[in-house]
Amino acid sequence: MKAKIILLLALALFIATKTTAQTKTVTISGIIKDKTLKSTIPYVNIVLKSSKNQSFIAGTVSNEEGHFTLSNINSGNYILEISFLGYKTKNQSLYVGTLSEFLDLSNIKLEEDINTLNEVVVKASKTDEVSAKMDKKVFSVADNITQSGGSVLQSMQSLPGVTVQDGKVQLRGNDKVMVLIDGKQTALTGFGNQSGLDNIPASAIEKIEIINNPSAKFDANGNAGIINIIYKKNKQEGFNGKIGIASGYGSLWERKANLPTIRPQYQVTPKINPSLSLNYRKNKINAYLQADYLYTETLNKNEFVTRTYDDGTIINQQTKRNRNTHFTTIKTGLDWNYNEQNTFAFSGMFGSEKIIDNGDEPFFNQDYSERLRLWQFLEDELKTTAMVSASYQHKFKEAGHKLNAGINYTYHREDEKYFFDNIMPTFTGKDSFKLLSDEKVIDINVDYVQPLKYGRFETGLKFRNREIPTNMQFFPGINSPLDPNAGGWATYKEIIPALYGNYIFENNKIEAEAGLRVEYVKLQYDVNPNHPTYKSDGYDYTQPFPSLRFGYKINDKNKITAFYNRRVDRPNEVDIRIFPKYDDAEIIKVGNPALKPQFTSTFELGYKTNINKGYLFASLYHRFVNGTISRIATTAPDSNLIYNVFQNANRSSSTGIEVVYAKEINSWYSFNLNGNGYQNDIEAFTVTNLYPVPTTYFGKRQQIFSGNIKWNNTFQLNKSTSGQLSAVYLAPDIIPQGKINSRFSIDLGVKKTVQKGKGEIFLNATDILNTLVIKKEIQGDGFSYNSRDYYETQVVRFGYSYKF
Asked: Please, what is the average pLDDT of the chain?
């Protein structure tokens, strides 16, 4: 253990990565009043000066009601000078921080002095413009050259602290991530756990925010943190837009040959992604449209599994899945600035995801001399999402003092048909099932922000009503492996009212934020009374979710920050869905309606120092979870079938360090290095899988030291051409009942601006050495298995875009 700690600390000195820094400016406001009469004073001169050299920074005049505003002020130490004929000139020291976009000085009182006619001047001292809040990282999708033309999920693979496993994003080794689009939860990416990220074109996205320690303002769901995907939205005046086309090919050669007697696996798979962005801004109106289409053919899975049972039986199998995906997204909206105080916004989003999977699953004995079964399937799935939103913002007279209100309605339909031929040595059965699920969600929110002299106060409420009726119908053939009695209907109902309050304080040395969110959750899961195993179930709770952040500025270049928050992961509807899912003939997934939420507490201590043309950031974190949600695999008596069922295991925890180092070496080369190392621990537990018959599993304690290293290199080859080389190493890690082995990949990309900066072309390649293979080892009760997934990872893409 000591050796691991020494290795971890040594790693911390050398490893890091580059976050895209945002330059944040602040709006200062206040009211000028007569000290004696308490009345407001119009047309007063206000000047902001540097506290170091008394140089002029900004100036303005108060309006007829005595209000004034100074916009676009950088963080720093200033002198505010207020002067007016007949009053004494007032000089007031002022510190502008980084936590709030608005600073309200409230009432500034002038004392009458008929003998003083001083002039007003303002001067400023600028501090580091790189955002030092350390509560989130922001990445421009356009800067990720190696993943241009791919999906949002693919573009995240090289980001600091992010790993991708089984089609899901993990933050610091945990996949319980809440995904937002433009700050809102949608069915496109999931209201519970994440979904659909691999089918959102990166071309539609402007930037990605990673929030490891969300404040109480955010929903409490997602113990690993939040990923906020920001869609493109042009802000230029007049009519403008962008059009682009990207294409590419994957599975350039066969990584591992099929087992005998099955259909060929996809090779040289085509991709195409046209995109269109339009924007019109004039006077009080801003209208926008973002439309993207993504078509891909993919070798989505090519997994080879060897299962060994305690009675000596050994089965070799392959799961090969050729996938065609059509994904269309359209996002449009209108912003209407009715007047200076009132703004209305209306938006709509439509997404259509059509997936066709053609797959083969052959099963052989130990020496491959006999084929035991061939499972050939066609999965035809259509997911349709529509969302409409309306919001209103009222700005009070004081800058930054505002009230926001909004309503969002989301409709999501999942229409899945599954047909398969169960080919056995003595017969062939033709079986199928159909799932129809309609999700309807209404979110209502109200948020209020009051700027203060040393920070701000914010509070609000949110109400959610969510309902998901599902219907699963099984159509068995001869000697069918299906369980038709496990079908039928089920309805998921969820009501969540929540209140939050946040207080932010900031002065020259200290930043502090304290918040509390209180949520009430009532979940009801109604099940077909004829279901052979599960009955209606649900839960309700009222829980507090506090969040704290404290920052201390040692000096202009060095800062330390401490975080604490408590969060929850409520089971999603898919996690408790009662129907068995036969996407593998002999490893069957089943939900669990008795599943309960898992609660998480996280502590983090961070340090950041700015260095010449770069920075170093390091954080120590500890996260522990009660009621850890995991899939647990067991077997049924006298059967080789394995059932994977969601369960609440015992406590789990991770303790680690993340280090980020970014440096511009010279005008043509910069790099960022990121390392994340953590001790992962899953305590011993006992659970009982009820389906298809009660089976108890005793899980032993699992521990491992894991992590990842990411190295991104950017080359400015000339004024118009830049290149990027990225390398990623993922260390072995534990998963429920087993572990996943190490992975490694290298990506390469180049882009060039043309047509006087209006056009851009790119070329990139992912996993150029074809080394990224998912290797797992699972130890169950009465069986074990090893798997190797040679799915499509190597893709070459190229494209062109033009701004007008």
From this structure: 87
Return the structure tokens found at 541.
């709770």
Using an 8 Å Cβ cutoff, are 615 and 609 in contact?
yes
Read off the tokens for 422.
């169960």
State the distance between the two ends of the chain, measured CA to CA, in whole angstroms.
Answer: 58
Rg (CA), the chain: 29
Cα 173–Cα 189–Cα 354 angle in degrees, nearest 5:
120
The residues near 449 (Cβ < 8 Å, ≥ 6 apart) are 102, 400, 401, 402, 403, 404, 456, 457, 458
Cα dihedral 787, 792, 794, 795, rounded to 10, equals -170
Question: What does the alpha-carbon distance between residue 286 and residue 343 come to, in Å, rounded to a whole number?
Answer: 11
For residue 22, give both structure tokens: 């945002």
Separation between Cα atoms, residue 631 and residue 691, nearest integer Å:
13
Of 180, 245, 248, 247, whose CA–CA distance to 214 is shortest?
180
Q: Kindly report which listed range (22-26, 313-317, 432-436, 621-625) carries the lowest average pLDDT score.
A: 22-26
The H or E element that residue 4 is part of is helix 2-14
Distance (Å, whole) CA 798 – CA 555: 46
Q: What percent of the chain has pLDDT over 90?
A: 60
116/792 Cα distance (integer angstroms): 78
CB 557 within 8 A of CB 614: no
27: Cα within 13 Å, side-chain hemisphere: 13
| Distance between CA atoms of residues 576 and 594, nearest Å | 7
Q: Which residue has the tokens 């522990």?
A: 624
The SS3 call for residue 804 is: coil
Q: How many other CB atoms are there within 10 angstroms of residue 238's CB atom? A: 8
Query: What's the 3-state SS for 249-293?
Result: EECCCCCCCCCCCCCCCCCCEEEEEEEEEEEEEECCEEEEEEEEE
Query: Where does 98-191 show beta strands of DSSP type E?
Result: 102-110, 123-126, 137-140, 162-165, 168-171, 177-181
Q: Is 690 left (phi over 0), alpha (psi -120 to 50) or beta?
A: alpha
Encoding tokens for residue 639?
A: 């059967």
Q: Dump the DSSP string for 485-551.
A: GG-EEEEEEEEEEEEEEEEEEE-SSEEEEEEEEEEEEEEEEEE-TT-SS---EEEEEEEEEEEEEEE
Instruction: Please tell me whether residue 575 adopts helix, strand or coil conformation.
Output: helix
φ, ψ (nearest 5 deg) of residue 485: -70, -15
Beta-bridge partner residues of 731 = none
Read off the pLDDT of residues 215-252 as tens digits, 9 standing for 90 and up: 899 999 887 888 888 887 766 778 999 999 999 999 99
β-bridge mates for residue 40, sequence order: 33
Element (H, E) at 11: helix 2-14
Q: How far apart are CA 407 and CA 366, in angstroms?
A: 59
- Distance CA(525)–CA(489), nearest Å, equals 11
Looking at residue 91, what is its pLDDT?
87
Q: Token pair of 90, please?
A: 């007032």
Nearest to 490 by CA among 565, 391, 398, 592: 592
Q: What letter represents residue 665's amino acid?
A: I
Total Cβ atoms within 10 A of residue 37: 9
Q: What is the pTM of this model?
A: 0.79
Q: Examine the pLDDT at 127 and tell me if it is beyond 70.
A: no
Q: Is the peptide bond before 484 cis (omega within 30 degrees of 0)?
A: no
Task: Kindly tell me the sign of the dihedral angle through the C-alpha atoms of 148, 151, 157, 162.
Answer: positive
Residue 747 near residue 718 (C-beta atoms within 8 A): no
